Amino acid sequence: MAAKPRSLRVEGIVLRHREWGEADRMLTIITRELGKVSAVAKGVRKPRSRKAGHLEPFMRTSLQLARGRSFFVLTQAEAIAPFIALREDLVLVGYASYIAELLDRFTFDEEENRALYRLISNSLTRLNRGDNPEIVVRYHEIRLLDHIGFRPQLFNCANCEEEIQPEDQFFSAAQGGVFCPNCGGTVSDAKPISMQALKYLRHFQRSSYREAFRAQVDPQVMTELERLMNYYLTYLLESGLNTPAFLRRVRKKE
């Protein structure tokens, strides 16, 4: 088996970072070529560091990585798409942080998945240019579930398999799909889902982003969708997400 190269040029997006030593920073990066990796950026916290401005969260950056014993060492960085709006607007910071946390929580180290990389890159691009952030995030969630193998069943009852009719239904995270009114009452974790909320989830699941973006979703329905997706994602992760609470706080301050 061929040895892994010691030095690699990759494209990546910083998902999160933490202080490391006196002047370094440990980065969690989703890369196009390798999947998610940990890399230490040496000296990046020094005032004169040339790399610091290219390694902010959510930036799409060209990176040179050297393979170390336990993690990569970042030797060069050059921003490709700085996504400035995602660091200047606190609400957009919240949405971008949520997207980054989802990807971080649902991926493993060095597991290449170019479709997931394209998804987060496209979603951050859409947030940065001013698209409706709630549409961007709901569409991102549905596409993420497709890519990681947890596509919810939205068109037929998960129990009796009858085609779902245009009426209020139930949704079960444990069963990963919708239950008709006749079957929903027998499922312990099933939550009500309105006809309108289900309509938009189905629309996002089967549509391109361009088609999904044209959707005019009532705010009350959008709130229902947000709660439902948080319920399903939390179940899959077996623990709560950190960023939704932060996002709710900053939106209240608008």
Helix/strand class: alpha+beta
CATH class of the largest domain: Mainly Alpha
Helical coverage, percent range = 40-55%
Following the backbone from N to C, one meets helices and strands in this order, namely EEEEEHHHHEEHEHHHH
Mean pLDDT: 93
Largest sheet: 5 strands, mixed, barrel
Characterization of this structure:
The protein is α+β, with helices and mostly antiparallel strands. The protein has 2 domains: 7-81, Nucleic acid-binding proteins (OB fold (Dihydrolipoamide Acetyltransferase, E2P), Beta Barrel), CATH 2.40.50; 85-252, de novo design (two linked rop proteins). The chain is 40% helix and 22% strand. The protein is built from 9 helices and 8 strands. The strands form 2 sheets. It has a 5-stranded mixed beta barrel. A 3-stranded antiparallel β-sheet has the order 7-6-8. The protein starts with 6 loop residues before the first strand and ends with a helix. The model has no long low-confidence stretch (mean pLDDT 93).
Write the SSE topology.
Blueprint: E1 7-20, E2 24-31, E3 35-41, E4 60-67, E5 72-81, H1 85-88, H2 90-106, H3 114-128, H4 133-148, E6 169-172, E7 177-179, H5 181-184, E8 191-193, H6 195-206, H7 209-213, H8 219-237, H9 243-252
Parallel strand pairs: 3-5
Antiparallel strand pairs: 1-2, 1-4, 2-3, 4-5, 6-7, 6-8
Summarize the structure.
The protein is of the alpha+beta class and 254 residues long. It contains 9 helices and 8 strands. The protein starts with 6 loop residues before the first strand and ends with a helix.
